[in-house]
Amino acid sequence: MPALLEAQGLTFGYERDAPLLSEWSASFDADEVVAITGPSGRGKSTLLYLLGLMLAPGAGEILIDGTPVQSLPDRARARLRAEQFGFVFQDAALDASRTVLDNVLETTLYRGESRAAAVPIAEELLERFGVQLRAEAKPGQVSGGQAQRIALCRALLGSPRILLADEPTGNLDPASSDVVIDAFHAHAASGAAVIVVTHDPTLVARCDRSITL
Asked: Domain residues for 106?
């Protein structure tokens, strides 16, 4: 049975720089949480963008369920990102002009789902992760730790098969970090692959395995 997500021979570098990745390969199965670790500047966040089909490698292939997807047309790749992936970016990447709830519900637009039907799910996720805010609250009115948890709610809203997270516990206190790590394992247990870039030794220790760049 093929891996849920697989990278084969990925090579990537920015113009005039030495390649960050050279013929890099790995596979990620459903039901596991995998940490990507290593010193700063080694391309960990770049790798996450490659795995999430947001960057194109200079060479190599990304496969989902054994099917190559890297060479698909842009529209088809965008659809795959919307339907199969959830993302937690390092800076949370919330829209400051929209309410917290609207930020969580944003992904329903990309998947063509009913916003109204997703509202109770979004509210349940916010409550689960301890984000108790006024309905009209904006991202600029929340702490960095709350912003990161809001971003996690947004990523989990569509129950993605592949969850990618960049330093997801970087702005969290130990208790909040435990809640997030437990959520990663619960989501993996539902049949998803969870891949996290992190410098947090506590998170690395609680992952099923780690890969060092």
From this structure: 5-12+21-212
Domain with residue 83: its CATH number is: 3.40.50.300
| CB proximity list for 72: less than 8 A, separation 6 or greater | 80
Q: Tell me, what DSSP letter sits at residue 18?
A: P
Q: Please tell me the total count of domains within the chain.
A: 1
Residue pLDDT, tens place only, 167-196 = 998 878 888 888 889 999 999 999 999 999
What is the CA angle 87-136-91, rounded to 5?
30
Give the model confidence (pLDDT) of 55-100 as tens digits: 888 889 999 999 999 888 988 888 888 889 999 887 777 878 888 8
Which strands sit side by side in the sheet containing 5-12, from one edge to the other? 21-28, 5-12, 59-64, 67-68
Judge whether 90 and 30 are in contact, CB under 8 Å.
no
Which residues, 6 or more positions from 150, have their beta carbon under 8 angstroms from its beta carbon? 92, 94, 100, 103, 104, 126, 131, 139, 142
Contact 107, 82 (CB under 8 A): yes
